[in-house]
Amino acid sequence: MSFKILAINPGSTSTKIAIYEDTKEISKKNIEHPSDEIAKYNKITDQYEMRYKQILSFLEENNFDIKSLSAVVGRGGPLPPVRSGAYKVNDAMVDRLKNRPIIEHASNLGSIIAKEIADSIGVNAYIYDSISVDELDDIARISGLAEIERQSLTHCLNMRAAAIKTAGNIGKAYKDCNFVVAHLGGGISLSAHRQGKMVDMVSDVEGPFSPERAGVLPTDKLVSMCYTTEQSVVNKKLRGKGGLVSYLNTNSALEVQDRIDNGDEYAKLVYEAMAYQIAKAIGQLSVVLEGNIDRIILTGGIAYSKMLMDWIVKRVSFIAPIEILPGENELESLALGTLRVLKGEEEAYEYDLD
């Protein structure tokens, strides 16, 4: 028996959708939402009807019978800490995301739209590896200031998918492996996986700078900036105008590489510094696993950059073998996670958090 799965990944200016039949992608669409259209809505959940109708229009235009779907899966938005893996989307989850969202984030719509479509045809809706997955060891929660606890907020979906895939590639089960995984995209986060659990991480605010984010900064100078600069400006410097944007006025790794190829030594210094900081964070998490590491995994969009990968590999290859899996693969990760549930290889949890 084959299974057909609709995967939905809402982003700030797009909604990416794909239909899978078992492990094969049979259709895919990136629905763009112009900024002037998005600007009409006060809250993320106000965009629900617009995005929902555009998804249905795509399915109708392709003569796809939604009644043939076995399940619908949406990107899991910010929730109170949850386990890794699949959750059935229920009324409690929808109510939380609609009426008491932790933050305004486009992914809040993933489960809401998935449940609407799934309910209309009598199948289950799921989320898989929400960005709020929290499996941290207790020792990893200690920050250094009693009033602040470290939180697990990472690119969990792609990182766990890369880890599961790598485990298969080396002929082992994910639960029997130790990995350090680095997700390298517009934001960069890393995680330590011990025996199938993500026990520690370096979030995009406490680690390497990235194309758009500043990463960890000297706290004394950051505090001084906060007292002399408006909060909204500081927030934008940290997320959106940090990293490569701050130094080189671009978030494009391809453009930076072109500059380097044309002899721009400053661009080379900054780009190599990003690799340097990523390598330092990998070393940091290697200590968490006491050096017992099956693979270091480099994934995400800028893992396509051979220049960056070569710099990182040079610094960390002494720790463990390297696996490079470029791309974010979020729709595939959602679909394959749901497929494992449908085939009985994993169990979906019931969301019951307030």
TrEMBL record:
Record PROSITE patterns: ACETATE_KINASE_1 (PS01075), ACETATE_KINASE_2 (PS01076)
Domain of life where this protein originates: Bacteria
Keywords (A to Z) from UniProt: ATP-binding, Cytoplasm, Kinase, Nucleotide-binding, Transferase
Pfam families: Acetate_kinase
Enzyme class: transferase
Family: Belongs to the acetokinase family.
Protein name: Probable butyrate kinase
Organism name: Alkaliphilus oremlandii (strain OhILAs) (Clostridium oremlandii (strain OhILAs))
Lineage start: Bacteria, Bacillati, Bacillota, Clostridia, Peptostreptococcales
Gene name of the record: buk
